[in-house]
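hey so i finally got around to running the thing on that chain from the lab meeting. sorry it took forever, my laptop kept dying and i had to restart like 3 times. anyway pasting the input first so we r on the same page abt which one it is
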Amino acid sequence: MNYRHQFHAGNFADVWKHCLLIPLIRGMQRKDKGFLFLDTHAGRGAYDLSAAARGDSLERTPEHPDGFGRLSAAPNLPGLVSEYVSLVKEFNWARGGAGTEVRYYPGSPWITQKLLRDQDRLALCELHPEENSALKAEFAQERGVSVQTLDGYTAIRAMLPPLEKRAMVLIDPSFEEKDEFDRIVSAVTEALRRMPAVTIAVWYPLTQRAGVDRFFDQLLLTNPPPCFTAELMVAGEDSSLKMKGCGLLVLNPPWQIEREFAPAVEALPGLLAQGTGGGGRLVWLVREK
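ok and heres what got predicted. didnt touch it at all, straight out
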């Protein structure tokens, strides 16, 4: 429970996750009926990038200049990426950010809240005491948003299926625990047992390819529904970077949503590269029938 996202906010992993979150939510909204969006590891909701270099005791190198900072002034961005950049800039301006550099960055709770309709509902879970307090303050006045002091994996059992009978779950843990992939497989299995049609998005880091492949093998043993993974590599396997990329696994994706992912999958690897040998890809683990 030591992890705080403050020092990583706006990095390449956030860019990837938040860009792809937009079409996923839009895909859920093709139907008029509302849905529950459950964010299992919500963090504090918003981040001051000017504080990203201040650790608890040591100075840190901010990560956002090589993430959102690369996109902020980039020309000719594809539509999806441009929409994401505009959303972040509007959030920054609303918070009082001035000048050309973005200071205030929205986490996935605010990215989601800005896109939801009146009939949709947002449930945010966060166990870290300081992060939870900040999250509650962020959304104290927001209609249709609840903040839970609850383990996100427990929340899946507690909140599914919702009254709306439609739901999307974002699982985005800190990966502090060695068994995190095992916990994710258990959580996904439980979510699908309770609600077979639930859409689930799982963010994961790419540090060692073998570990991620084992995760996929474990998942496939559970006989999952249609699912694909969209991965970003900012450097090749031989890079000295600890985290060379990240991925977003999507189960029960909205129909043909991979087509809407395509512009980001094609454009972002070049914009966010930190070494040679990187790239982007979208791979089906279980194809739609």
